[in-house]
Amino acid sequence: MAFVQFSQVSLAFGDRDILKNVTINLQTGSKVALTGANGSGKSTLIKVLAGLTPPDSGNRAIQKDCRVVYLPQSGLTHHGCTLKEEADKAFDFGYEIQKQIDELGTQLESNPSNSEALVIQQSDLIQKLEDSGWHRREAAAESVLIGLGFSREDFTKNTEEFSGGWQMRIALAKALMQNPDILLLDEPTNYLDIEARNWLETFLQNYNGGFLLVSHDRYFLDVTINEVYELFNGDLKRYPGNFSHYEKVREVELKTLIAEYEQQQQEINKLEDFITRFGYKATKAAQAQEYQKKLDKMVRIEIPESLKKIHFSFPPAPHAGRLVLRLKDICKSYDGQRKVLNNLELTVENGQRLVVAGRNGAGKSTLLRIIAEQDKDFTGEIVPGAGIKIGYFSQDNAETIKGKETILEYVEARAPLELIPKLRDMLGAFLFRGDDVYKSLDMLSGGEKSRVALLLLLLSPVNLLILDEPTNHLDIHSKDVLLEALKGFGGTVIFVSHDRGFIEQLATQVLHLEPGISRYYPGDYVFYMEQMAKLEGGESLPLSSAVKASSATPSSGDTPQHPDSVSDTKLSWEEQKKLEAERRKKEKEISRIESEIQALEDKKKELENKMADPSVYSNGEKAKAVQREIEEVALKIEEFTEKWMEISS
């Protein structure tokens, strides 16, 4: 079994201890998440594990021939060859082994006296090469590249043609293709859409080697790992189980820590208050000095930023009518030929939280820009409802944030008065903690500017939020804060995200886009995934389950509704009213039938429990009577179910 083991490893930068006597063991089959607050040293620890950063002290043991592959979170680029040629570089280790096998073959021909030892050595290398999967490298490369979102047409493109995000996908693909004993992945999901994330989840679930990864996607972690290491103040602690289990255990621990922290804070406040009030009085000076010494020696208790609970809510959404937005025959093309959006029709009603899903290039961001009136180069019509006030966020918002103001000054100048007392907590929730709030805008990175832009948007009184990848550059804790605020938002939300856990908890409807094709799903993300699985399995869907957006009229509220099979945008007002009345009548009938079915199901269960009673099943006459009742109820359930299906369709 391959392994990498570290014992009592320490590392300091200046006077700050990054790692303090850390011990960790990674081996074949390890499925590990590394967590901790931003700046806690996670990336540094991974580099130490990879052998790239030497520790100040401690021991590193690695099994002979154990292959370790490390993927940083950013900064890798590729050039000088095609994608297929670059992918083949992932198999250089195999070419090297094959070279050694060939050299041993040459030695066997020229040195038969030592043939037994050479044959054994060559046999070991041949087996090693076979176990690595090198002979199946072309199929492996194609599978990984397609899984991560590349098309077969991309295989012959020069690597220079790919953007920064796709460059990191190439690097991730190469890391996976190498099939190492230990994989070290620093935020591998940063540049992946949800389809590629789903594929990577399955890959890691079936991975035979061991891996350690950092990710801010809770769902991704829950389905891939089975142990968590938390790095806090230089200490590393192991928690068995998935990420959600770690959070529950850590929350219990945190309650004790908070109690101790609050008690210590009270004592600190008393000591500091005494020193401030009496430090300059001769009669109290000696006592004040003793208190100061006590403060200096005190080991301060700290609470992990990632586990502090911060809540905030949006300003009240301005009043809006039931109709928020109607899109009619929306078409968009960038080259005049291939239509990204084609005759898309959609009605959005108040209170909906609609996620726009689909692969990269399907037109998700394009649609959001059109709705937000940032892109007017399209055909068709957008009809906004009365009183609609739009707030729009995309990564491009960061470009408008510049100047010499500090973050705190910039946000305070734009925040409603009632929210100013909460700004420090809100900035903390978006990863601006301590002295970070005094950074000038011109000193911020692109990711930091995006977080400022998102926070500003959440401070504005709007009733339609359009959010393009709002969770980028946020850690898990910050996503939770944003999610709770959005769930409590009194308006309508249209958003794009690649974080499945975030989508599942927020979305109430789904619009799926493919180039030139759209399909509306009147249910949450789990419902959408179920319907997509049916489609992929070759099953056709009824209109009540999923319809093209051009014929969809979503209903308000959080529960899935059954859209009309006819587009009402081309009908007269009287016809629309008639259709709406018929729809409501059918919905009431459906609700009544569902209640009947539930009552019959309850009665059937009651009768089945009665049949299990010894006084019934031991009496032939009683048992027959109860059985007849069960059969009659089952028949009624079947009749009502058929009626429900007829009306629903």
Main traits of this protein?
single chain; 649 residues; alpha/beta; seven-stranded mixed sheet; six-stranded mixed sheet; globular
Describe the fold and architecture.
By secondary structure, this protein is of the alpha/beta class. Helices cover 43% and strands 18% of the residues. It has 20 helices and 19 strands. It has a 7-stranded mixed sheet, with helices on both faces. Strands 5-6-7-3-8-9 form a 6-stranded mixed sheet, sandwiched between helices. It has a 3-stranded antiparallel sheet with strand order 2-1-4, with helices on one face. Helix 7 links the parallel strand 6 and strand 7. The radius of gyration is 31 Å and the shape is globular.
Low-confidence stretches are 542-573
Q: Nearest-angstrom radius of gyration? A: 31 Å
Number of strands: 19
Major sheet details: 7 strands, mixed
Structural class: alpha/beta
- Specify the helix fraction band: 40-55%
- Oligomer type: single chain
Distance between the termini: 57 Å
Beta fraction: 15-25%
The spatial strand order of the largest sheet comes to 14-15-16-12-17-18-19
User: How many H/I helical runs?
Assistant: 20
On the 0-100 scale, what is the average pLDDT? Answer: 84
State the shape: globular
Task: Give a short synopsis of this structure.
With 649 residues, the protein is of the alpha/beta class.
List the helices and strands and how they pair.
Blueprint: E1 3-13, E2 16-27, E3 31-35, H1 42-49, E4 57-62, E5 68-71, H2 83-88, H3 92-110, H4 115-131, H5 137-147, H6 164-177, E6 182-186, H7 194-205, E7 210-214, H8 218-224, E8 227-232, E9 235-240, H9 243-278, H10 285-297, E10 323-333, E11 339-349, E12 353-357, H11 364-371, E13 379-384, E14 390-393, H12 407-412, H13 423-429, H14 446-458, E15 464-468, H15 476-487, E16 492-496, H16 500-506, E17 509-514, E18 517-521, H17 525-536, E19 547-548, H18 573-611, H19 614-617, H20 620-648
Parallel strand pairs: 3-7, 3-8, 5-6, 6-7, 12-16, 12-17, 14-15, 15-16
Antiparallel strand pairs: 1-2, 1-4, 8-9, 10-11, 10-13, 17-18, 18-19
Helix pairs in contact: 3-4, 5-6, 9-10, 18-20
